[in-house]
């Protein structure tokens, strides 16, 4: 039941040195056996690689519990974030990083050297109090993506059923025509851009709420409410999901002219034009509007792609804070502007026609325009010289002279 | 012939400290000169930056040979993976990382500090026994891509000639029509998706073979055969190549409606329809099928892109093992499913028509469906509750009670 | 005015140790207050997190000035590259890296441990002389992108007005027709590929100039002129901008068949064909040419995308120098070839028709072909066996026997 596994894969020179390293690969419930071995383990480096099956199963981290059991040994938590596959076959692409933590620098150094020799790259996470975090890491499954995913799924489901009723059911009920085939491409290509635009705007809304809150409070030294903090922390995920939906929209749009339905309709249009001997005039303003609509969409999407690329860890690490915020804020608002303008051009004068409001409901694109329009209007207000000046001063530490507690100032100047 | 180059680019403070660092930039065949200098070099840090023109030219690494010649010096292998350009002009984007190895920690520290001051980031690769690996690094040219590339080229060549005969040669021989222009787009757009789908399935086949092998053996403590190990290690490259082919397929497909041939054919179709006064009915089921076909393709490709993005080193490093395997396995099988379904929808009822089997050969898309269908069927079988339960238990370390050697168990629990 | 902020966010164990760390968060102009505190600060680690509002405001870096004021303390420059947001809320995606520098290793170690405990990853940039660089970092705003951006904007503006006059103004003046709507898509889709191709070629031109210079000089041990060095250092940015323009070109092209103008024109063409009872013959050579044109474009763009992906920091870090130069050089020239060929196929026999030269000006695509054609011709010349052999020898260190100063040789062999 108890097994000390000395890793065999070390090179010869390394193996000679590592005799004082003990790798512990047993489950936590068997740790109490070790208490009796305490004298033999004294001064040794105990490498705890254990993981739990669930979060918060025990009050303290396995490594801290081990350290308490064998106080004479130097416990180092390491290698637990690796897969068994990586431990057997050496570092692969997904598993090059070994996190470790421990109270004694020499012990950590010894483990780090072993890991380095095996080809891993080591990241020191500090003292043993970080063990809990390291033990929770392998159980993590996109925690920060959950809220954005829920929002995306919720919005998609709502707009899918909304548009299903407005487009397919309405046509079936009123005109008695079955256009259910439109679900696969046409309907999807309405849902995706709507959700994408709303989620893109949701990335920039919290920043605007924060600015208004700071203006109202006259200081930056008060914490934002929790919901705002949480919202701000998932902006990146919101944005990336929005980019995913935008990409789907792009592909669904580009595939349009190959579709059977579209080809059939165009052919039928030309045939009926000939049979009825009609001549249609080329309308310059439609051409202008349509081409601007495509241009805005393409520019918006390309800027959006750029935002996505700069949020790759290796790219954003190479940027200074000023560069990162320039791209994510300045270019980000430009992206919102282009995409919103794209949607307005799509709508054009459609909002004037009564036929647009089937069953007295507004079309989907109108609903999608509410949040981004609000974001843009408020951003414009915040850019007014007088507002902008006050906000900049507040962000540089200035406070409107309220008889406030001064203790907050000393925290962060 | 012999030259000690003291790097001149150091800042003043650094230069004063580094006087005990000797950078050795001579070819290995001139190292014997150094033996006579051994007394002067005693205690100094010798930085070996040499590289060889070929692999395995000498029995031992240059740095190890040097250490043997001058045992009193502390040899550190470093900087050899950098280009001359980076050494002259300072770190550029491609060359920020300096690998080093050596037996003495202080010597490595001194070299690491110099490298840091020059703006490089240092990666310690352990003792001098790693020197061989460092010396082989600059000679490396995509070793892990070779097998996948060979497979890709082989499959592409086979399907190109197969389809050339079936499409172009057959038409020429039987109908006497020269449609050789179809090679450039139409034929390419058949070869690329076929090869892509087969290679995508080849990524997931070894995992299924491994699972079957584990079920058959009743244990996970026996090594897989060598060919399977090698296959599993190049899955990432197989997948990325498949993604490349899929991207080509996407571009070749989207370009279809701009092609002269397609425009001509559509125009001719409409004209003949008018002249013969035919009226074609809109077929709902064709619309459903066509749109589903496009939808599946787009969803499959977007998921495939996601797999590709998460295989970027900086992204996969930020993921926990559970997250990485969720994406690469769960979403991976979903991708295979979407893409296979896409191909089935393309085929539809074509397999029933005798005209499909020109010269008694099956069309290309049928051949491409064999491997992915096998993968999906076996995956479904492995997901059956009874099979899945056994497999999970085997992977958690359980063994079917065979009178086996127990020594394997102790290696990795 | 004076405030010592002890960071409160540390874990308990860490807080106990860090009592000797003093974080200094005041503006440089208030540093003189510290001179009187010198005795109390003796032996303490002073962490300077200050930033300036402009570059080169003071003759020496803030941290160096501080060290001079309080010589007994150990000044470490750190945390200044982080945003206030990251300091308050812990490391986020854009802000995981803490750069530090200082003269005393122990002091740096102490600060590094604190940063590690807070979840940041630390990068040591050497002695305090690096402080200036660290203080300039937050003020950086894409310095290396400026020249390439200027070139891109200049070229775009020039070609926009050039084509505006040739296409829109010419048609208006000569035929009296208003086709201004073409600005949004058709004109943009001419400007983008032209600028992209020229900038792609500009990436490879300096390498060719450098080779010719080395051949002419007969040695590699002489520095290139400054303008060439600067040009070579911004090749990556030039290439990425060219890729951005190429992507825009791709989207603008793929959107063509959905445009109102194109649909109208095709419809009108078919209708007039029927009314005039013309029959158009399918032209095999036009099909060949058009399909090759698309094929070359797609292959060129996909290779270009590959070049872009390998220039991501995390990908290029994983490549050996040989692999990186294989992709950026070999595949790079292949990309230039595909794209140039694509442009030649676009032109085809257009250069023979007098109607092409409106107002005696050559069309835009001709101008775009000058630089890439030069690059390809010179590259072919450099690949001639006799030239290539000499160049390889020069790059391996051989020199044509000129009576030159030998001192250069010793610098870098």
Automatic annotation (TrEMBL), chains A, B, C:
Gene Ontology CC entries for this record: endosome; plasma membrane
Signal peptide start and end residues: 1-16
Keywords assigned: Copper, Endosome, Ion transport, Iron, Iron transport, Membrane, Oxidoreductase, Signal, Transmembrane, Transmembrane helix, Transport
Domain called Pyrroline-5-carboxylate reductase catalytic N-terminal: residue spans: 8-52
Catalytic activity: 2 Cu(+) + NADP(+) + H(+) = 2 Cu(2+) + NADPH; 2 Fe(2+) + NADP(+) + H(+) = 2 Fe(3+) + NADPH
Names of the cofactor(s): FAD; heme b
Pfam families: F420_oxidored (PF03807), Ferric_reduct (PF01794)
GO terms assigned for molecular function: cupric reductase (NADH) activity; ferric-chelate reductase (NADPH) activity
Family assignment from sequence similarity: Belongs to the STEAP family.
Chain ranges of the Ferric oxidoreductase domain: 194-338
A GO BP entry: copper ion import
Subcellular location: Endosome membrane
Transmembrane segments: 147-165, 191-216, 237-258, 293-312, 324-345, 365-387
Entry-linked SUPFAM superfamilies: NAD(P)-binding Rossmann-fold domains
Stated name of the protein: Metalloreductase STEAP4-like
Source species, domain of life: Eukaryota
């Amino acid at each position: 039941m108890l097994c000390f596994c000395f890793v065999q894969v070390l090179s010869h020179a390394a193996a000679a040195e590592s005799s004082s390293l003990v790798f512990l690969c047993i489950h936590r419930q068997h740790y109490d056996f070790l208490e009796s071995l305490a004298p033999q383990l004294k001064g040794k480096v105990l490498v705890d690689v254990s993981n739990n099956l669930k979060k918060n199963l025990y009050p303290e981290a396995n490594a801290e519990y081990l350290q308490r059991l064998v106080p004479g040994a130097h416990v180092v938590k390491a290698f637990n974030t690796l897969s068994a596959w990586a431990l057997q076959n050496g570092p692969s692409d997904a598993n090059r990083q070994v996190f470790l933590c421990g109270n004694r620098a020499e012990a950590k150094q010894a483990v780090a050297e072993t890991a380095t020799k095996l080809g891993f790259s080591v990241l020191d996470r500090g003292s043993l109090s970080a063990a809990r975090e390291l033990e929770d890491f392998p159980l993590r499954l996109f925690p920060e993506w959950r809220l954005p995913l829920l929002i995306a799924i919720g919005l998609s489901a709502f707009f899918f059923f909304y548009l299903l009723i407005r487009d397919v059911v309405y046509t079936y009920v009123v005109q008695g025509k079955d256009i259910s085939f439109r679900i696969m491409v046409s309907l999807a290509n309405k849902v995706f851009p709507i959700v994408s635009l709303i989620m893109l705007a949701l990335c920039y809304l919290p920043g605007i709420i924060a600015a208004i809150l700071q203006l109202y409070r006259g200081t930056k030294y008060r914490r934002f409410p929790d919901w705002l903090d949480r919202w701000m922390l998932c902006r990146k995920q919101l944005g990336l999901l929005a980019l995913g939906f935008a990409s789907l929209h792009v592909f669904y749009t580009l595939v349009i002219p190959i579709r059977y339905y579209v080809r059939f309709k165009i052919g039928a249009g030309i045939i009926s034009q000939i049979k009825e001997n009609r001549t249609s005039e080329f309308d310059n303003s439609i051409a202008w509007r349509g081409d601007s609509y495509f241009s805005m969409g393409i520019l918006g999407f390309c800027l959006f792609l750029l935002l996505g690329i700069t949020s790759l860890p290796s790219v954003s690490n190479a940027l200074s804070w000023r560069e990162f915020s320039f791209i994510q804020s300045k270019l980000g608002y430009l992206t919102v502007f282009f995409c919103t303008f794209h949607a307005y051009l799509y709508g054009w004068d459609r909002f004037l026609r009564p036929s647009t409001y089937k069953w007295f409901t507004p079309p989907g694109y109108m609903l999608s325009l509410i949040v981004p329009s609000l974001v843009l209007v408020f951003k414009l207000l915040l850019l007014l010289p007088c507002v902008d000046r006050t906000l900049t001063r507040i962000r540089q530490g200035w406070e409107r002279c309220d008889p406030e507690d001064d203790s907050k100032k000393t925290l962060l100047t």
